[in-house]
Amino acid sequence: MRPRAYLAGFGNQFVTEACPGALPHGRNSPQRAPLGLYAELISGSAFTAPRHVNQRSWVYRRQPSVVTGAHRPYEQPFWQTGAAAGEHAPPDPLRWHPVPIPSEPLDFIDGLRTVVVNGDPEAQTGMAAHLALFNRSMDGRALVNADGEMLLVPQQGALTVVTELGVLDAVPGEVLLLPRGIAFSVQVQGPTRVYVCENHGAPFRLPELGPIGSNGLANPRDFLAPVAAFEQQQDRPYEIIRRVGGRLWQTHQPRTPFDVVAWHGNLAPLKYDTAHFMAIGSISFDHPDPSIFTVLTSPSDTPGTANCDFVIFPPRWMVTEDTFRPPWYHRNVMSEFMGLVTGQYDAKPEGFRPGGMSLHNCMVPHGPDAQAFDKASQADLAPHKLADTLAFMFESRWRLRPTAFALHSASLDSAYADCWQGLADRFVAPPPAPR
Fold it and tell me: Label partner for 52 (CA 20 to 30 A): which of 146, 296, 382, 424?
């Protein structure tokens, strides 16, 4: 089987057609589009947004997306959004062991379980972090999320995601970014666990590099968009599930939504392999802030304070001298939701397992457990590599509220706070100064 073809670049103006001659030349919406197609514009930003943040793609399809049926409510009580859907919870650090994948047949939509929420999708602020726990493909089903874009972080199992603009494959270690309002269907081969960030705020973009300079972190060329591809069987019936205003709606249509024969523009689904991330770190002493691991950022109306950041902790070298090398103890005005894709996280060598999660909200103290502290305090500070590990963080300026599913889950680690109880008072008072 040939490798799938992709187009490279973040924010590029892509041009692709599945059939020669499907793209019109010189006019986006000619009186008659080529090959009997319909021209349709998908706008991911306001028409008057500045050019550098304006997102839109022209698609040329066999039937316009308006050809569909009326909608009725669709019940999926575990998918929740907005701060109002969260529970009142004490300001404690929270951690979850890996949540088992159910044995009952579930696809991506029905297997979604919301863990933490904030903001308001109607006001286009905030985010939600979900787990998708599923074991079958979305056969004859497609999802359209008008509430926000979706960032998929596979932890177990490979994904094939069919979108209106083409097909993306992803395995653990890669991530997928699906724009707001684009229809997609998730195909899998077996039990699958995926972390999902549903971003209601400004679209994710690459962070500014500042003093780092022109190279570092995630490079635009390593983001891959799909080439145009369409489902050959136009009259295949589809169930369409739409996410609008924090609710799900269902309709049926007698045709496939994946009928785009050609498209051009800069609004596109993307995949990114985290192995291409160029990690930045200290080569003298102390830690730079964890913001140096930011892959994507959704800015807020306060400069420098993100609606949501996507941060990864990939394999990397540690070379600092006279430095406590795991993350330091800290309290943060930003709220942090973490997950572990593979390997071991250096600040929690035992209790934080692949597929697990943690939540440290605004100003909740956290840091290395007692075992990690003791080991790091006595370690030989020769250069060493943190290998075979990938952790990530969804960080938000808004406090994250856990859902009832999360707070009452059997996977909630009720003994999480015990990992710090061994941090004894080691203060040694200096001798009194001579009189």
Answer: 146
Sign of the torsion formed by the C-alpha atoms of 128, 176, 395 and 12 = negative
Q: What is the pLDDT of residue 70?
A: 94
CB-count burial class (<10 Å; 0-12, 13-18, 19+) for 411: middle
Tell me the two tokens of residue 172: 């653990």
Residue 310's pLDDT is what?
A: 98
Q: Which residues are catalytic?
A: 287
Report the candidate in 82, 120, 110, 130 with the shortest Cα–Cα distance to residue 406.
Answer: 130
Domains of the chain (ranges; CATH) run 70-258+269-274 (2.60.120.10), 277-413 (2.60.120.10)
The residue to which tokens 């939504």 are assigned: 257
Q: Is 14 exposed, middle or buried (0-12, 13-18, 19+ CB in 10 A)?
A: buried
Residue type, 389: T
* pLDDT at position 351: 73
Largest interatomic CA distance in the chain: 98
CA angle at 78 for the pair 73 and 80, rounded to the nearest 5°: 75
**What single DSSP character describes residue 341?**
E
C-beta separation of 395 from 309 below 8 A: yes
Select from 99, 107, 103, 97 the least CA-distant residue to 136: 107
pLDDT of residue 1: 43
Which helix (H) or strand (E) segment is 372 a member of? helix 370-378
Q: What is the pLDDT of residues 203-261, one digit of tens each?
A: 999 999 999 999 999 999 999 999 999 999 999 999 999 999 999 999 999 999 999 99
Q: What number of other Cβ atoms are within 10 A of residue 324's Cβ?
A: 18
- Cβ atoms 365, 420 nearer than 8 A: no
Residue 382 burial (CB count, 10 A): 8
From first CA to last CA, the distance across the chain in angstroms is 84
Instruction: For residue range 426-435, list pLDDT tens digits in order.
Output: 999 999 988 8
Q: Please identify every stretch of the chain with a pLDDT value under 70, giving residue numbers as ranges.
A: 1-2, 347, 349
- The per-residue pLDDT for 347 is 61
Segment 337-340 long-range contacts (CB within 8 Å, at least 24 positions apart): 337/115, 337/116, 337/129, 337/393, 337/394, 337/395, 337/396, 337/400, 338/391, 338/392, 338/393, 339/153, 339/155, 339/195, 339/391, 339/392, 339/393, 340/155, 340/390, 340/391
